[in-house]
């Protein structure tokens, strides 16, 4: 009976199925991401906080991404495995994996909560909280109110290591800048990059939602041996991801000032506004490739290619994300921090092309 009830995954048009599953994922991720965005908008427009508050929010933000990383690791992995099991006619294994995933999520949440509370001060320091006294004070205060991110499902990828590198390079090379090396402007780069990351979070929420919505469809069809349908869905997904990235790119390149004024720019110096516009246009200039890369990562996972997906994601976030965030500022100062994002996305896409090609090839046989 259960097998018959799931057969529509192998029979309905893949475009219809993608919309059916992806739209709820996108909405849930956007709600979570918007929660964080609205939080920062209120902080920025509080006259007693301003850029200090935004900088503090940026310091704490990576800690929420750690929680997301664990949730995605367990949730997406379980979803892919369950779908493959159902497609191959093994509902018993699917049921067991769901129970195991729930238990693992609860255990991980408890452990993460304990670690955050015990190591609060060193964690805030690692993510750049010591840029100045006021930012660190507000970071500690903020930490005890959105600190764990367990209930906030942020659509961020495993960017924690890169965020740590970026935040510390901002602190280091901002101090060498003739403008931001002055005490009254020191927090501006940290605040601005945090805002840019939040916009990126919104876009990636859509990209992740699109791909996550495909997981049960892909898994079921692969389990049922229907590779042609899985191949058509892959094409549709990559096209949709590219379209999302193109729309985001248009917004940040053409309308950066309206975006930054949402975050309290009216009460800030001209240096804040100029650096914000500059940051939006550079840091997010490869949004199309970032979205396509994300779709490819998750689709590979849905196919059961966990090793390839994990390696590609690790190369993007740790190898490229961290190394370029540390290396490029040596030659380009603060601009080097901004260029680390597009350079990482371009190089990751070069690698992803080979995996995309091999995936299409495997789905033809």
UniProtKB/TrEMBL annotation:
Keywords: Cell membrane, Membrane, Transmembrane, Transmembrane helix. The keyword Transmembrane applies. The chain crosses the membrane at residues 21-43, 63-86, 98-119, 142-166, 178-196, 202-222, 234-252, 280-302, 314-332, 338-356. Its main location: membrane. It is found in: Cell membrane. It is a multi-pass membrane protein. It holds the Pfam family MatE. This is MATE family efflux transporter. It comes from Ruthenibacterium intestinale. The lineage of its organism: Bacteria, Bacillati, Bacillota, Clostridia, Eubacteriales.
């Amino acid at each position: 009976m259960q097998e018959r009830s799931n057969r529509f995954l192998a029979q309905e048009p893949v475009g219809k199925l993608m919309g059916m599953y992806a739209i709820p994922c996108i909405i849930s991720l956007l709600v979570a991401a918007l929660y964080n965005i609205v939080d920062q908008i209120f902080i920025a427009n509080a006259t007693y906080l301003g850029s200090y508050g935004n900088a503090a929010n940026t310091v704490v933000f990576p800690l929420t991404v750690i929680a997301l990383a664990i949730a995605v690791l367990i949730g997406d992995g379980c979803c892919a495995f369950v779908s493959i099991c159902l497609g191959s006619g093994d509902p018993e294994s699917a049921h067991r994996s769901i129970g195991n995933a729930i238990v693992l999520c609860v255990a991980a949440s408890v452990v993460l909560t304990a670690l955050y509370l015990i190591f609060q001060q060193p964690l805030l320091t690692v993510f750049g909280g010591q840029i100045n006294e006021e930012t660190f004070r507000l970071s500690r205060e903020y930490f005890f109110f959105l600190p764990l991110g367990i209930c906030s499902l942020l659509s961020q990828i495993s960017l924690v290591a890169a965020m740590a590198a970026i935040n510390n390079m901002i602190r280091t090379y901002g101090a060498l800048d003739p403008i931001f090396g002055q005490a009254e402007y020191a927090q501006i780069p940290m605040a601005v990059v945090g805002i840019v990351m939040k916009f990126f979070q919104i876009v990636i929420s859509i990209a992740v939602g699109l791909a996550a919505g495909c997981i049960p469809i892909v898994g079921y069809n692969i389990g049922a041996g229907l590779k042609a349908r899985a191949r058509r869905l892959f094409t549709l997904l990559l096209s949709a991801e590219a379209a999302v990235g193109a729309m985001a790119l248009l917004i940040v390149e053409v309308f950066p000032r309206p975006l930054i004024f949402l975050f309290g720019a009216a009460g800030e110096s001209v240096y804040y506004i100029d650096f914000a516009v500059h940051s939006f246009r550079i840091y997010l200039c490869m949004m199309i490739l970032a979205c396509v890369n994300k779709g490819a990562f998750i689709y590979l996972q849905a196919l059961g290619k966990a090793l390839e997906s994990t390696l590609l994601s690790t190369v993007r976030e740790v190898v490229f994300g961290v190394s370029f965030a540390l290396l490029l500022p040596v030659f380009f100062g603060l601009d080097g921090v901004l260029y680390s994002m597009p350079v990482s996305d371009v190089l990751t896409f070069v690698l992803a092309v080979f995996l995309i090609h091999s995936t299409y090839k495997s789905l033809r046989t």
